[in-house]
Q: What sequence folds into this?
C-alpha cells in the first residue's frame, strides 16, 4: 500500500460513463424519502463526497440549498457542469470539514465513508458532521459491508470496454485489516483524429466497518443513531447485506 496514486483524476472524466448502471433516480428517491421522513423538507443539505454531483443536483431539484463537498477537484469540475450556480461546491477533505454555518442535514452516499481507513479518522468525520449540523439535524450515509468486499467483490478483476474509454479494475481484500484495495487502469480517448488513448492508474482503498463499530464511533462523536437499514429498504441488515444505511441525529444539549 505504499505506492501513491491520485484518485479520481483520470477516472473523473469517464466516471459517469462507467457508472451508468447505477440507478441514481431510485437511490435519490430512497434518500429523499428518508430526509422527508425525518423532517428535512427544506434548508441547507450538505452532500459529502459528492463526486460528479449526480445526487447533489437531484436534491437541489427537490428545493434544498445544496453544498457539495469532495476531495477531488476533477470530480467537482464535472459536478459544476451538472449543478446550477446556486449550488456551492467546495474542494475539502471530510476529515477537515470547514463550513460557514450549520446545515439541516448531511448525506454521504455511494460508499464515500468507506474511504476513511482509520477509526479515529472516521470518528473525526462524525465529529465534524456534528459541529456543522443544526440541532435536530439529520445525518444519512451508506457503507458497503464486509460481506460485499469479501464475498461479492473478493479477488475479482472487472473490465469494461467502451468506444472512447475502457478500464481494468483489480481487487484484493485484506481480511486482517478489512481493507479492499483496487487498482484502476483507465484508457481514455485523448486524440480522436489519431485514435490515441491516454492511460491513467489509480489505487483506491476502502475499509469495511461493522455496524457495531460505526454505532460506537457515532456515539463517541456525540451523534445519536436512529436507524440502520439494509440499503433501499426499511429492513434490518443481515449477513447478506451488501450496503447499509445509517441515520443519525444531532440532539439538543
A:
Amino acid at each position: 500500500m505504499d505506492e501513491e496514486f491520485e484518485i479520481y483524476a483520470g477516472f473523473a472524466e469517464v466516471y459517469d460513463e462507467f457508472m451508468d448502471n447505477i440507478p441514481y433516480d431510485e437511490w435519490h428517491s430512497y434518500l429523499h424519502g428518508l430526509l422527508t421522513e425525518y423532517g428535512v423538507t427544506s434548508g441547507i443539505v450538505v452532500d459529502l463526497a459528492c463526486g460528479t454531483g449526480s445526487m447533489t443536483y437531484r436534491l437541489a431539484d427537490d428545493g434544498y440549498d445544496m453544498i457539495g463537498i469532495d476531495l477531488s477537484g476533477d470530480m467537482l469540475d464535472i459536478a459544476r457542469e451538472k449543478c446550477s450556480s446556486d449550488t456551492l461546491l467546495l474542494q475539502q477533505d471530510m476529515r477537515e470539514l470547514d463550513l460557514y454555518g450549520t446545515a439541516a442535514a448531511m448525506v454521504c452516499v455511494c460508499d464515500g465513508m468507506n474511504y476513511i481507513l482509520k477509526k479515529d479518522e472516521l470518528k473525526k468525520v462524525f465529529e465534524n458532521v456534528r459541529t456543522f449540523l443544526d440541532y435536530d439535524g439529520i445525518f444519512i450515509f451508506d457503507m458497503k459491508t464486509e460481506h460485499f468486499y469479501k464475498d461479492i467483490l473478493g479477488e475479482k478483476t472487472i473490465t469494461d470496454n467502451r468506444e472512447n474509454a475502457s478500464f481494468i479494475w483489480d481487487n484484493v481484500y485484506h481480511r486482517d485489516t478489512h481493507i479492499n484495495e483496487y487498482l484502476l487502469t483507465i484508457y481514455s480517448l485523448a486524440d480522436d483524429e489519431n485514435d490515441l488513448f491516454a492511460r491513467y492508474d489509480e489505487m483506491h482503498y476502502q475499509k469495511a466497518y461493522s455496524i457495531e463499530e460505526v454505532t460506537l464511533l457515532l456515539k463517541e462523536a456525540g451523534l445519536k443513531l436512529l436507524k440502520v437499514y439494509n440499503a433501499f429498504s426499511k429492513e434490518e441488515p443481515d449477513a447478506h447485506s451488501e450496503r447499509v444505511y445509517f441515520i443519525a441525529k444531532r440532539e439538543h444539549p
